[in-house]
């Protein structure tokens, strides 16, 4: 899928949030107008300390709301991404994607809590 130029993130960063902050963002999905998705971690039997750092990817864009509304996954291949993958494995595959208007902002316009799962047996 091709995005119009104004829907690209101008900046992005690999980030980490304590699980307690991730839970706050997930709560925001239910209480405010924000794009995103979450997971029922109890369903997967995942228990994580509130202090555990969860790796994520934050994207800043002047078109943050349209970008959040049309997000599609794209591959990232850098040494930083390999370190991010290692951090993700340390959390049992739990990670997130945040879309913001500015990387220094405390607010998100999109937040997706994600979990790596093994592919189903064929």
UniProtKB/TrEMBL annotation:
It comes from the Eukaryota. InterPro entries: Tab2-like (IPR009472), Tab2-like_C (IPR046761). Signal peptide: none annotated. Coiled coil: none annotated. GO terms for molecular function: RNA binding. Residues 72-114 form the RNA-binding protein Tab2/Atab2 C-terminal domain. This is RNA-binding protein Tab2/Atab2 C-terminal domain-containing protein.
